[in-house]
Amino acid sequence: MADLASLQDILGVTFRDLSLLEQALVHRSYLNENPDFALPSNERLEFLGDSLLGFVIAERLYSDFPDLSEGEMTRLRAALVRKETLARLAGSLGFGAYLYLGRGEEASGGRNKQSTLAGVFEAVIGAILMDQGLSVAKGFLLRLFEGEIGRAIEEKLIADYKSRLQEIVQARHHVTPLYRTIREVGPDHAKEFTVEVIVGDSVIGRGHGKSKRLAEREAARIALDGLLQG
User: Per the count of CB atoms within 10 A, which of 63, 164, 174, 210 is most buried?
Assistant: First the structure.
Protein backbone atom coordinates (compact mmCIF):
# COMPACT_ATOMS: atom_id res chain seq x y z
CA MET A 1 0.00 0.00 0.00
CA ALA A 2 1.24 3.49 -0.85
CA ASP A 3 2.25 5.77 2.01
CA LEU A 4 -0.93 7.81 1.92
CA ALA A 5 -0.07 9.76 5.07
CA SER A 6 3.01 11.33 3.48
CA LEU A 7 1.10 12.01 0.26
CA GLN A 8 -1.61 13.82 2.22
CA ASP A 9 1.11 15.95 3.81
CA ILE A 10 2.40 16.85 0.35
CA LEU A 11 -1.10 17.74 -0.83
CA GLY A 12 -2.03 19.61 2.33
CA VAL A 13 -5.32 17.69 2.30
CA THR A 14 -6.60 15.20 4.88
CA PHE A 15 -8.96 12.75 3.22
CA ARG A 16 -12.08 11.47 4.90
CA ASP A 17 -12.14 8.47 2.56
CA LEU A 18 -8.57 7.36 1.91
CA SER A 19 -9.72 4.82 -0.66
CA LEU A 20 -10.41 7.70 -3.07
CA LEU A 21 -6.83 8.91 -2.81
CA GLU A 22 -5.53 5.36 -3.18
CA GLN A 23 -7.73 4.78 -6.23
CA ALA A 24 -6.25 7.89 -7.84
CA LEU A 25 -2.88 6.13 -7.79
CA VAL A 26 -3.98 2.88 -9.47
CA HIS A 27 -2.78 2.60 -13.06
CA ARG A 28 -4.73 0.12 -15.15
CA SER A 29 -1.55 -1.90 -15.78
CA TYR A 30 -1.56 -2.84 -12.09
CA LEU A 31 -5.05 -4.31 -12.36
CA ASN A 32 -4.06 -6.35 -15.40
CA GLU A 33 -1.62 -8.19 -13.16
CA ASN A 34 -3.67 -7.96 -9.96
CA PRO A 35 -7.30 -8.49 -11.03
CA ASP A 36 -8.45 -9.12 -7.45
CA PHE A 37 -7.24 -5.75 -6.19
CA ALA A 38 -9.97 -4.05 -4.17
CA LEU A 39 -10.03 -0.76 -6.10
CA PRO A 40 -10.68 0.14 -9.74
CA SER A 41 -8.19 2.08 -11.87
CA ASN A 42 -7.87 5.85 -11.64
CA GLU A 43 -9.39 6.50 -15.07
CA ARG A 44 -12.83 7.66 -13.88
CA LEU A 45 -11.24 10.02 -11.35
CA GLU A 46 -8.92 11.21 -14.11
CA PHE A 47 -11.96 12.13 -16.22
CA LEU A 48 -13.43 14.07 -13.31
CA GLY A 49 -10.20 15.90 -12.55
CA ASP A 50 -9.69 16.82 -16.19
CA SER A 51 -13.17 18.35 -16.34
CA LEU A 52 -12.68 20.35 -13.15
CA LEU A 53 -9.23 21.56 -14.17
CA GLY A 54 -10.50 22.95 -17.46
CA PHE A 55 -13.34 24.76 -15.71
CA VAL A 56 -11.19 26.25 -12.93
CA ILE A 57 -8.57 27.57 -15.34
CA ALA A 58 -11.23 28.97 -17.68
CA GLU A 59 -13.01 30.73 -14.82
CA ARG A 60 -9.78 32.27 -13.52
CA LEU A 61 -8.80 33.55 -16.97
CA TYR A 62 -12.29 34.98 -17.50
CA SER A 63 -12.45 36.65 -14.08
CA ASP A 64 -8.92 38.02 -13.76
CA PHE A 65 -8.14 39.02 -17.35
CA PRO A 66 -11.17 40.82 -18.81
CA ASP A 67 -9.22 42.06 -21.83
CA LEU A 68 -8.55 38.56 -23.15
CA SER A 69 -10.60 37.48 -26.15
CA GLU A 70 -12.30 34.10 -26.40
CA GLY A 71 -9.54 32.85 -28.69
CA GLU A 72 -6.80 34.07 -26.34
CA MET A 73 -8.44 32.41 -23.35
CA THR A 74 -8.82 29.18 -25.30
CA ARG A 75 -5.15 29.14 -26.28
CA LEU A 76 -3.97 29.99 -22.76
CA ARG A 77 -6.18 27.32 -21.20
CA ALA A 78 -4.87 24.74 -23.66
CA ALA A 79 -1.29 25.66 -22.77
CA LEU A 80 -1.98 25.48 -19.05
CA VAL A 81 -3.74 22.10 -19.01
CA ARG A 82 -1.54 20.33 -21.56
CA LYS A 83 0.07 17.03 -20.66
CA GLU A 84 3.55 18.51 -20.27
CA THR A 85 2.40 21.04 -17.66
CA LEU A 86 0.45 18.49 -15.64
CA ALA A 87 3.29 15.97 -15.73
CA ARG A 88 5.75 18.60 -14.52
CA LEU A 89 3.48 19.54 -11.62
CA ALA A 90 2.91 15.88 -10.75
CA GLY A 91 6.65 15.30 -10.81
CA SER A 92 7.29 18.28 -8.54
CA LEU A 93 4.84 16.78 -6.03
CA GLY A 94 6.46 13.35 -6.26
CA PHE A 95 3.34 11.54 -7.45
CA GLY A 96 5.34 8.99 -9.45
CA ALA A 97 6.67 7.33 -6.31
CA TYR A 98 3.14 6.55 -5.08
CA LEU A 99 1.77 4.90 -8.22
CA TYR A 100 0.47 1.35 -8.38
CA LEU A 101 2.01 0.07 -11.63
CA GLY A 102 2.20 -3.28 -13.34
CA ARG A 103 5.64 -4.84 -13.62
CA GLY A 104 5.87 -4.18 -17.34
CA GLU A 105 4.86 -0.55 -16.95
CA GLU A 106 7.33 -0.18 -14.09
CA ALA A 107 10.14 -1.67 -16.17
CA SER A 108 9.42 0.69 -19.05
CA GLY A 109 9.83 3.77 -16.85
CA GLY A 110 6.15 4.31 -16.16
CA ARG A 111 6.76 6.36 -13.03
CA ASN A 112 8.32 9.08 -15.17
CA LYS A 113 6.09 8.92 -18.25
CA GLN A 114 4.39 12.20 -19.06
CA SER A 115 1.07 10.58 -19.90
CA THR A 116 1.04 8.56 -16.67
CA LEU A 117 2.02 11.52 -14.49
CA ALA A 118 -0.52 13.80 -16.17
CA GLY A 119 -3.17 11.14 -15.65
CA VAL A 120 -2.45 10.67 -11.95
CA PHE A 121 -2.41 14.44 -11.48
CA GLU A 122 -5.94 14.69 -12.87
CA ALA A 123 -7.05 11.65 -10.88
CA VAL A 124 -5.81 13.16 -7.62
CA ILE A 125 -7.77 16.32 -8.42
CA GLY A 126 -10.84 14.17 -9.00
CA ALA A 127 -10.28 12.40 -5.68
CA ILE A 128 -9.97 15.71 -3.81
CA LEU A 129 -13.18 16.92 -5.44
CA MET A 130 -15.13 13.81 -4.47
CA ASP A 131 -13.77 13.72 -0.92
CA GLN A 132 -13.49 17.40 -0.01
CA GLY A 133 -15.89 19.17 -2.33
CA LEU A 134 -15.59 21.86 -4.98
CA SER A 135 -14.23 24.67 -2.80
CA VAL A 136 -11.24 22.69 -1.51
CA ALA A 137 -10.44 21.17 -4.92
CA LYS A 138 -10.66 24.56 -6.61
CA GLY A 139 -8.45 26.19 -3.97
CA PHE A 140 -5.87 23.42 -4.32
CA LEU A 141 -5.72 23.89 -8.09
CA LEU A 142 -5.48 27.66 -7.94
CA ARG A 143 -2.59 27.48 -5.46
CA LEU A 144 -0.74 25.10 -7.76
CA PHE A 145 -1.47 27.06 -10.92
CA GLU A 146 -0.93 30.60 -9.66
CA GLY A 147 2.63 30.70 -10.96
CA GLU A 148 1.71 28.82 -14.14
CA ILE A 149 -1.02 31.33 -15.01
CA GLY A 150 1.32 34.25 -14.34
CA ARG A 151 3.99 32.78 -16.60
CA ALA A 152 1.47 32.04 -19.35
CA ILE A 153 0.19 35.63 -19.29
CA GLU A 154 3.77 36.91 -19.28
CA GLU A 155 4.59 34.77 -22.31
CA LYS A 156 1.50 36.10 -24.07
CA LEU A 157 2.48 39.73 -23.40
CA ILE A 158 5.99 39.08 -24.66
CA ALA A 159 4.63 37.46 -27.82
CA ASP A 160 2.07 40.26 -28.32
CA TYR A 161 4.58 43.11 -28.09
CA LYS A 162 7.18 41.37 -30.22
CA SER A 163 4.77 40.17 -32.90
CA ARG A 164 3.08 43.59 -33.17
CA LEU A 165 6.46 45.31 -33.44
CA GLN A 166 7.54 42.86 -36.11
CA GLU A 167 4.37 43.49 -38.13
CA ILE A 168 4.90 47.26 -38.12
CA VAL A 169 8.64 47.11 -38.85
CA GLN A 170 8.19 44.66 -41.71
CA ALA A 171 5.39 46.76 -43.20
CA ARG A 172 7.42 49.98 -42.99
CA HIS A 173 10.98 48.82 -43.54
CA HIS A 174 10.73 45.26 -44.97
CA VAL A 175 13.15 43.91 -42.36
CA THR A 176 12.81 41.96 -39.11
CA PRO A 177 13.74 43.65 -35.82
CA LEU A 178 16.72 42.14 -34.01
CA TYR A 179 17.22 41.86 -30.25
CA ARG A 180 20.69 42.27 -28.75
CA THR A 181 21.66 41.81 -25.10
CA ILE A 182 24.03 44.64 -24.23
CA ARG A 183 24.30 44.26 -20.47
CA GLU A 184 24.02 41.50 -17.89
CA VAL A 185 24.75 42.30 -14.25
CA GLY A 186 24.21 40.80 -10.82
CA PRO A 187 24.59 37.35 -9.24
CA ASP A 188 23.02 34.28 -10.87
CA HIS A 189 19.94 34.39 -8.63
CA ALA A 190 19.26 38.10 -9.24
CA LYS A 191 20.52 39.04 -12.69
CA GLU A 192 19.40 42.15 -14.54
CA PHE A 193 19.48 42.23 -18.33
CA THR A 194 19.46 45.13 -20.77
CA VAL A 195 18.34 44.44 -24.33
CA GLU A 196 18.20 46.67 -27.39
CA VAL A 197 15.89 46.18 -30.34
CA ILE A 198 17.50 47.17 -33.62
CA VAL A 199 16.08 47.95 -37.04
CA GLY A 200 18.76 48.32 -39.67
CA ASP A 201 21.48 50.37 -38.01
CA SER A 202 19.18 52.09 -35.53
CA VAL A 203 18.33 51.22 -31.93
CA ILE A 204 14.59 51.83 -31.61
CA GLY A 205 14.06 50.55 -28.07
CA ARG A 206 15.94 49.52 -24.95
CA GLY A 207 14.51 47.48 -22.10
CA HIS A 208 15.54 46.08 -18.72
CA GLY A 209 14.33 42.94 -16.98
CA LYS A 210 15.15 40.05 -14.67
CA SER A 211 15.39 37.75 -17.70
CA LYS A 212 16.31 38.26 -21.33
CA ARG A 213 12.72 37.62 -22.35
CA LEU A 214 11.38 40.26 -19.98
CA ALA A 215 14.00 42.72 -21.19
CA GLU A 216 13.05 41.96 -24.79
CA ARG A 217 9.39 42.55 -23.96
CA GLU A 218 10.17 45.93 -22.43
CA ALA A 219 12.37 46.88 -25.38
CA ALA A 220 9.62 45.88 -27.81
CA ARG A 221 7.01 47.84 -25.82
CA ILE A 222 9.15 50.99 -25.81
CA ALA A 223 9.92 50.60 -29.51
CA LEU A 224 6.22 50.17 -30.27
CA ASP A 225 5.34 53.30 -28.31
CA GLY A 226 7.91 55.26 -30.27
CA LEU A 227 6.77 53.98 -33.65
CA LEU A 228 3.08 54.52 -32.94
CA GLN A 229 3.67 58.06 -31.68
CA GLY A 230 6.05 58.96 -34.48
Answer: 164
